Amino acid sequence: MGDQELLDRLKDAVVQGDGKKIRKLAQETLDAGVDPYKALTEGCARGIEIASEKYCRNEMFILEIILSAEAMYAAFDVLKPCFKEKAEKGKVVLGVVGGDVHDIGKNVVKLLLEAAGFEVIDLGKNVPLKGFVEKIKETDADIVGMSAFMTVSILGMYEVIKMIEGEGLRDKVKIMVGGAPITQEFAGQIGADGYAKNGRDGVKVAEKLMMEKGGFTS
């Protein structure tokens, strides 16, 4: 079985939310010599992207998308011990803005960032806006990532950015945003440094922002 077929099977298992099957598939992928990070990003993460797209088109229910996310986490449990040791690329404070409890997308970004070599401080969901600023100061984070699924919550991102500016931290931290109602245009309007439409993009954006900070080179 070729690498692409294995990746496609991982992708399909995530879309189907088959947590038992995906553990076996993940091990088969490793046994075949496929890079574990490639299995995670091009197999599992692609599956959760497809599931999310189906959910937004009302082709999947919330329970189904939760099962898809759990299948991805199950695969990660198998793949994680095989990731090569990497130097920390940077420190990311990550959370879902206050008023919003939809955290599947945030959790996927966290998982992929950690697999890529970032240190992630996860604030969870429904995070008070001041909580982002306080954690940036506490951890001396390089990047703050904010997620929102509900349209009514996205303006909280702008408020957090204004708080960061008010605390004199804007030149010290990069800001990236994401979530179903977020667009590149909106990210620019509120003054964010980067926008990610999915977990895989989240890693690319975070790496780009760190290079802009001079934190590491690719």
Word description of this protein:
- This protein folds into two domains: about 5-80, Methionine synthase domain (Methyltransferase, Methionine Synthase (B12-binding Domains), Chain A, domain 1, Orthogonal Bundle); about 90-215, Rossmann fold, CATH 3.40.50.
- Helix 3 runs antiparallel to helix 5 (about 105-115).
- It is about 55% helix and about 15% strand.
- Strand 3 (about 145), helix 7 and strand 4 form a beta-alpha-beta unit.
- The mean pLDDT is about 95.
- The protein is an alpha/beta fold and about 220 residues long.
Secondary structure topology:
Layout: H1 3-16, H2 19-31, H3 36-56, H4 62-79, E1 91-97, H5 104-116, E2 119-127, H6 129-139, E3 143-147, H7 155-166, E4 174-178, H8 184-190, E5 194-196, H9 199-213
Parallel strand pairs: 1-2, 1-3, 3-4, 4-5
Task: Name a few traits of the molecule.
Methyltransferase, Methionine Synthase (B12-binding Domains), Chain A, domain 1, Rossmann fold, alpha/beta, 2 domains, 9 helices, five-stranded parallel β-sheet
At the fold tier of CATH, the topology name of the largest domain is Rossmann fold
Strand order of the largest sheet: 2-1-3-4-5
User: Which second-level CATH architecture of the largest domain applies?
Assistant: 3-Layer(aba) Sandwich
Averaged pLDDT, please? 93
What portion of residues is helical?
55-70%
Structural class: alpha/beta
Report the portion of residues in β strands: 5-15%
Overall geometry comes to globular
Alpha plus pi helix count = 9
Q: How many domains make up the coordinates?
A: 2
Calculate the terminal CA-CA distance, rounded to whole Å.
Answer: 32 Å
CATH class of the largest domain: Alpha Beta
Q: Please report the total strand number as a whole number.
A: 5
Uncertain runs: none
Give helix and strand order, one letter per element, not per position. HHHHEHEHEHEHEH
Largest beta-sheet details: 5 strands, parallel
Radius of gyration: 17 Å
